[in-house]
Amino acid sequence: xxxSPPSHPVRPRVGLFVTCxxxxxxxxxxxxxxxxxxxxxxxxxxxxxxxxxxxxxxxSGDRAxxxxxxRQTIKxxxxxxxxxxxxxxCAGMLKSHYPRxxxxxxxxxxxxxxxxxxxxxxxxxxxxxxxxxSVESSFAGRVTYHDSxxxxxxxxIKDQPRKxxxxxxxxxxxxxxxxxxxxxxxxxxxxxxxxxxxxxVDKKCASIAESGASLVLAxxxxxxxxxxxxxARDGSPVRxxxxxxxxxxxxxxxxxxxxxxxxxxxxx
Amino acid sequence: xxxxxxxxxxxARAALADPQLQRALSGLPTGLVAQRTSAKxxxxxxxxxxxxxxxxxxxxxxxxxxxxxxxxxxxxAAGAVVHWAETGAxxxxxxxxxxxxxxxxxxxxxKSMISEEIGLNADLERQGFEVVETDLGEYLIQIRGETPSHxxxxxxxxxQDQVEADFRALHTHLPADRTLVExxxxxxxxxxxxxxxxLSADVxxxxxxxxxxxxxxxxxxxxxxxxxxxxxxxxIHIVIASIDKVIPTLEDVTTLLRLLARSATGQExxxxxxxxxxxxxxxxxxxxxxxxxxxxxxxxxxxxxxxxSEVLRCIRxxxxxxxxxxxxxVGGHAYGWVYPGPIGSVMTPALIGVKAGGHLPNASxxxxxxxxxxPMKIPLPxxxxxxxxxxxxxxxxxxxxxxxxxxxxxxxxxxxxxxLAARFGIAALSAAGRGKGRFSWLPFASAWxxxxxxxxxQGRTFQQLxxxxxxxxxx
Lengths: 268, 475
Description:
By secondary structure, chain A is of the alpha/beta class. Chain A has helices at residues 20-25, 27-39, 55-58, 63-76, 88-101, 106-116, 122-129, 149-155, 159-166, 189-192, 194-211, 221-233, 243-248; strands spanning 13-16, 43-45, 82-85, 119-121, 141-145, 171-173, 215-218, 239-242.
């Protein structure tokens, strides 16, 4: 339901679901997300009772752990109006899979469904819920956007990021071929089946190179780590960032896998 | 067929290193995938039709007993002999008995995945029958001693050069200096060879895309017409079909056929769609003297009503594998048993057990592209996850992996401790990666760093930094 921020009498309380990867590896995405949520007319809170959405357990067949983490997450965000995650994968877990996890389980299911109603992926929250039509920051460059699988297929995130990027005067969007095909990350898949994962990310990197973009954007740090890690290993000059960093204009931190001093540093 | 599924990883590695296979697979996106996309675009109601198709199948499966009995009644009334087989062995025995009693020598076959599932060819050959696959793709893999690598395009793993070489090696009765450059020349040669077999066959075996309860008919769809020759030229026609294939009415089947060809090959309709109802009647110009239908369960009735029941909606179009990035990378043989791709990753553990087939439901990124194209809207990732749950509950998850999950879960369930541990862990990792931006190798992360760099953490955890900004400490 789009609501216009200025006319809202009280600023809604948004609980930021940081995601474990952002928390550990790239806090700059979390801060960029917080900036954008505030720009959309909301107040941001970061409950400390959150850790991980439980997806690694859920997708490994460990339902008991997944349920425990789901209950923990639902409880941690009980006070806020919205739960927003800078990840289609984690938001999909919170929004689509928590209710499935507790299907037919009375109170737990009701709680999961009520919680799911509050959950949104960051860019979809900005555009679809808050009606954000443009961003305040600027960026100049040729970028390409990778559609992360869960965001795309579970949450319908496709046009929203392109819409906001399109309002930034210096941004040129160079679509890659097969932007909707998986990069080969798949969470634990990437370490359980490294050969197949590598073949998949190689195809993705080839599409990225063909697009002519110098920066890859996506809404999920997992996919970005995979693509950036492979591009770096190949010695590609193409860089990767989470879309929130560009939309918020918070680009002080070097791109993913690039060093603070020089983008070309190699540690091998 | 002895399952090679436990060797999935090694099979996949070999497939990735096979340039010929990779060349054959590279045609998928511009071939079957692009054709489906275009067919879908030409039919505005395609998405709505998927819902109708799903409902037709759900209804048929919910009342399977009723429709099977109706089918048997109507098929029998039309002169069919209906046989029931609980297992693959029973089905093989029924079929070989019919062949033996007929005094058969040559058995022609239309494409049938069920016959692959029950290892029919090998069994018939052991008993001395000459079995000839008549679908071009099936013929190719039969002469190579291979199994199908795709459920509708069994020889999709082959390139044209390989086919030419095989034909020259096998068809030695033809002039050695003949040209075999154009696909049409290869097809014509196969047609010439197969024509003789059709004419001399005693028994023709086909599968069935659907069985229609209301009319007692079986249906096959083909693009080569080989199915028609198989079933109408031989004296005896045997249909082998699994019990989930029965559909209430002709009208329902029409809906499914509209979805099937578009999803499979991007055609509006297959070239041949053949309905068989009983044997030849006195006034018919042709047709078999005997018409048998073998209805096979082989585990389907156990899936019915289980958490896997939705997989029974499958109409075997192959769209899930065409669109699967894992299938596109490794091809069908790497999966190690009859059904490859996402549908195979759900069916295989059901048919050979999760212990042998456990790799398959794990070898998915859950990207969801299969579910998004499935004409029957089968939630394939969800069903693969159910197999992972079964594996976990039965203690079949690899111990190292299980311990890793348990350790991580112990911390993740204790937020205070988790945040503290994260703080120290990240501080240490950041110190190790200071100024580098990334790691090219890390202990305990070698499965990742073998092929990709790992981004170095930015320094401190978000939770830590956020807490500081809330206290007024500048970032």
